[in-house]
């Protein structure tokens, strides 16, 4: 047992990524094989894995650090504006640009009423990714990756694994090339947000906004126009990621280190 715990402590990221993929995929694939497309997607795999590896590697104190980041709301108001406004603005911009490339006029009437969307958004926030993923990707993996990699390199590593984590969704036709690329680009933006706030809560809010901006605003187009609009969205997210790297550099995505982040030592 002692040797196992020692191994987990030395290779926390390997343990976390393996467990996150394993828990999610093992909960998904058997249901797919037996039920076809009527299956759940276990979005809590990253969060559960983060807590398990935290507990094995550092005990309750390490778990508390992740929990604290999940309820950290005292950040500069501008970061709430970023969390809500950036994904929404990127999606809206892609919609407005799309007709310039031959798409039909946006059918704004296809967007459900706000009173209809809010309950669905609340359910999606809990069961469709934001709550189940962000404590793992940002609360656990990001600080450990950045203890031995630059913010840019760490973001790309996490982004690729985050994209791989979604691969079984291809079995039910819920995976696209533009969505996969967007996940990798979004990892850069999420690292920037986390590095400047230390808050998983704000990352959850950005995840909710990004996910549901695509889900609901994207209804204004159908068919090829929708696909084109999503590719325009990818280009916008790429521009945002390039702007972050150009302004902040590749090392930390912050102008000045502060004492607000949890220091970790893991591989």
TrEMBL record:
Q: Which InterPro entries match?
A: MmRce1-like, Rce1/LyrA-like_dom
Asked if the keyword Transmembrane helix belongs to this entry, the reply reads yes
Please state every residue range assigned to the domain named CAAX prenyl protease 2/Lysostaphin resistance protein A-like: 119-210
UniProt keyword annotation of Metal-binding present: no
Please provide the Gene Ontology terms (biological process) for this protein. Answer: proteolysis
Sorted alphabetically, the keyword list is: Hydrolase, Membrane, Protease, Transmembrane, Transmembrane helix
| Single annotated GO MF | peptidase activity
| Pfam families documented for this protein | Rce1-like
Name this polypeptide is given: Membrane protease YdiL (CAAX protease family)
Q: Which organism is it from?
A: Mesorhizobium shonense
Q: What is the lineage of its organism?
A: Bacteria, Pseudomonadati, Pseudomonadota, Alphaproteobacteria, Hyphomicrobiales
């Amino acid at each position: 047992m002692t040797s196992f715990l020692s191994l987990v402590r030395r290779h926390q990221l390997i343990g976390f990524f393996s467990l996150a993929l394993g828990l999610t995929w093992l909960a998904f694939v058997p249901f797919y094989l037996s039920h076809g497309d009527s299956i759940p997607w276990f979005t809590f795999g990253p969060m559960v894995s983060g807590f398990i590896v935290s507990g094995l590697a550092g005990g309750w104190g390490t778990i508390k650090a992740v929990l604290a980041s999940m309820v950290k709301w005292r950040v500069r108001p501008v970061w709430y504006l970023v969390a809500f406004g950036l994904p929404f603005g990127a999606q809206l911009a892609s919609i407005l640009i799309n007709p310039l490339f031959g798409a039909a006029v946006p059918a704004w009437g296809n967007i459900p009423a706000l009173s209809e969307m809010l309950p669905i958004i609340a359910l999606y926030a809990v069961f469709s990714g934001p709550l189940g993923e962000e404590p793992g990707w940002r609360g656990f993996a990001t600080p450990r990756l950045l203890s031995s990699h630059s913010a840019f390199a760490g973001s790309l590593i996490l982004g690729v694994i985050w994209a791989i984590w979604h691969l079984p969704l291809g079995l039910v036709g819920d995976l696209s090339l533009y969505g996969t690329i967007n996940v990798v680009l979004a990892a850069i933006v999420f690292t920037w947000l986390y590095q400047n706030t230390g808050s998983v809560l704000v990352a959850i809010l950005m995840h909710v906004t990004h996910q549901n901006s695509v889900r609901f605003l994207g209804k204004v187009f159908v068919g090829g126009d929708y696909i084109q609009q999503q590719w325009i969205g990818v280009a916008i997210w790429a521009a945002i990621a390039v702007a972050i790297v150009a302004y902040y550099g590749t090392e930390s995505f912050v102008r000045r280190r502060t004492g607000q982040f949890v220091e970790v030592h893991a591989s």
